[in-house]
Amino acid sequence: MAKVITSTKQCMTNPLRLSQPLGAALAFLGMDRCMPLLHGAQGCTSFGLVLLVRHFREAIPLQTTAMTEVTTVLGGIDNVEQGILNIWKKTNPDLIGICTTGTTEVKGDDLNAYITLIRARHPELDDVELVHVNTPDFSGAFQDGWARAVTRMIEELVEIPELGTRDARRVNVLPGSHLTPGDIDELREMIEAFGLIPTFLPDLSGSLDGHIPSEFTPTTLGGCGVDEVHGLGSAAWTIAIGAQMRGAAITLEHRTGVPYRLFERLTGLECSDKFMEFLSRISGVPVPRRYRRLRGQLVDAMLDGHFYFGDKRVAIAAEPDLLWTMSMWLHEMGCQIVGAVTSTMSPLLEDIPADEVILGDLQDLEVSAAGADLIVANSQARQAADRLHVPLFRMGMPIFDRLGTAHITTVGYRATRDLIFAIGNTLMAVDHEPTQATWVRDDMELPQSSSDFNILPS
Fold first, then answer.
1. Element (H or E) spanning 393, and its range?
2. H/E segment holding residue 238
3. Which domains, and CATH codes, for the chain?
4. 119 by DSSP, 3-state: which?
5. What is the pLDDT of residue 6?
6. What are phi and psi of 13, to 5 degrees?
């Protein structure tokens, strides 16, 4: 059992933690025809916008209420009202997702009351869904904001189903913030292979998968539609991926009666087996031959790769669910987790296979990674990896010095197989054949000349 330690430094050095409002905004970006609105200072939105643009390399629709010192003190209802009306007039979205920030949370703005007043004043907004979520950026982290936004959308948008409307083929999928658009595409393909019809909330694969739309739209250009969210109660099952989504799955079950199954991770052999077994059971369809073959390829890749993973020392910095996924899988591959750094609390942290887990920053990672064979973290850890002369395998957010980050895939047999190859090749690139300088122990005396070898005559 790992000991969870909270860093007591007076300031962060090379921060790891991303804020709750950013996580909530990304969840809203997975909705079709949506405009996220950050209720706070203009700089807060600008900073988050730059980070998302650098990571996804796409146009990101994101607006702000542009609070100033005066409006913060007097109250922000006028800014929220004007922001909503401007978005409605210029972009005509189906959904506006409003996220608070630290400034407005400290002030105590009551967004629920604000929206009630705004709707009473402007009946023309009746066709626009307004969902607000409290996301103070001085507490929690990225995945907390994502989870809160998904939970609020379920509370506000999901309709209570009528009796007898349950469809045995439909499943809801609640992906965690650590899953990429590529992961969601992979999950959709796996679920549909069993004849099931999945609905993802949210669905980044429709809006941030890097495709070029046929025409410009000022809002999000794909994802889960509001009408689809209305009908989540007609599904037979809900699949939640990542411990962060447990609360949202419970909320959906309480509201609609749809049972849920939580998968804490889907990277690795055993957890992928359980996922396939579950899909086969609820669909009544045997596991397709294609996935049986992919499973065999994964087992073979594990056999090929264990020579290079065994006893390797790895340091990881990531959000809790991604930290759990990578540390458990690398531990199964034979690695030692010598450093584990994360951004917020999670019930999974104590079970991570490391001596301690630090709630800290990338400086804490650099200290723990001294002497490691590999670092797994986002692009912000590249300087630390250079100083330590340790290879960096980039995962998480942001990744801005590599292409294709939206299509990184880690779920299921195929993705786990490819992950073995990618990390295995990284480790192989720095491994060298043993030489006299590397295989001799410190207590051994090296021969000084050929006569010291005591070679027997032939």
1. strand 392-394
2. strand 235-241
3. 20-140 (3.40.50.1980), 167-207+218-288 (3.40.50.1980), 294-430 (3.40.50.1980)
4. helix
5. 94
6. -115, 120
pLDDT of residue 458: 45
CB-based contact 146:175 (threshold 8 Å): no
pLDDT tens profile 276-306: 999 999 999 999 999 999 999 999 999 999 9
Q: Which residues pair with 37 in a beta bridge?
A: 63, 98
Q: Cβ-count burial of 456 within 10 angstroms (0-12 exposed, 13-18 middle, 19+ buried)?
A: exposed
Contact predicate 306/420, CB 8 Å: no
> Tell me, what's the pLDDT at 446?
52
DSSP letter at 216 equals: -
Q: Is 189 left (phi over 0), alpha (psi -120 to 50) or beta?
A: alpha
Instruction: Please list the residues that pair with 198 across neighbouring strands.
Output: 171
* Length, in residues, of the chain: 458
C-alpha 398/C-alpha 418 separation (Å) is 21
pLDDT of residue 347: 95
Query: Amino acid identity, residue 159?
Result: E
Q: How far is CA 350 from the centre of its chain?
A: 20
Distance CA 112, CA 131 (A): 9
Among 146, 143, 147, 83, which residue's Cα sits nearest to residue 111? 83
pLDDT for position 203: 98
Between the two ends of the chain, the Cα-to-Cα distance in Å is 59
pLDDT at 438: 59
DSSP three-state, residue 360: coil
Weakly modelled stretches of the chain, pLDDT under 50: 450, 452-453, 455-458
Tokens 């010291």 map to which residue? 452
Distance from C-alpha of 126 to C-alpha of 124, rounded to nearest angstrom = 6
SS3 of 95, please? strand
